[in-house]
Write a structure and sequence with these properties.
By secondary structure, this protein is an all-alpha fold. It has helices at about 1-5, 10-35, 40-65, 70-100, 105-130. Helix 2 (about 10-35) runs antiparallel to helix 3 and helix 4 runs antiparallel to helix 5 (about 105-130).
């Protein structure tokens, strides 16, 4: 048990981050409800949700990788999800600042750009970075069955 606890310290730290993100989102949404401008609510919801996502993905990845024996394919998938969540979290952290500090229509354009860059990062990581490690999310071997 002690070895499991020691091996999963990264996951435990990220679990604390996940708990803090959930509590933080609840507080942010309660405060945002007091503001008549609904964009504050959306900004807090997006920021908090992406924070929860990044810490949840990281917690699961590190618990599975460090605490259990999992297949390389599952480990790669969880690592990819962890990285994808980081791209979304980066876009999610920009969102409140853009919605509250930049006036429309510039804020709308900037939001689109930031989120498209985040999605572009996910696409890039899916196609290029995985190939550098010698594996891929998509099985590129031809299926010789039924040919």
């Amino acid at each position: 048990m002690l070895r499991f606890m020691k091996n999963t310290i990264a996951a435990q730290i990220h679990l604390l981050g996940l708990i803090a993100a959930v509590v933080g989102l609840i507080i942010l949404l309660r405060v945002a409800r007091l503001n008549p401008d609904f964009s504050h609510f959306w900004a807090c919801l997006i920021f908090g949700s992406t924070g929860i996502l990044v810490f949840a993905a990281s917690t699961v990845y590190h618990f599975m990788k460090d605490g259990f024996r999992v297949s390389q394919k599952l480990e790669n998938l969880l690592e990819d999800l962890d990285h994808f969540a980081i791209y979304l979290f980066i876009a999610g952290t920009y969102t409140p600042f853009i919605l509250n500090a930049v006036s429309p229509p510039g804020s709308h354009v900037l939001l689109w750009v930031i989120w498209l860059i985040g999605l572009g990062g996910i696409c890039f990581a899916t196609t290029h970075l995985r190939n550098q490690r010698g594996a891929s999310l998509v099985d590129k071997k031809p299926n010789n069955q039924g040919v």
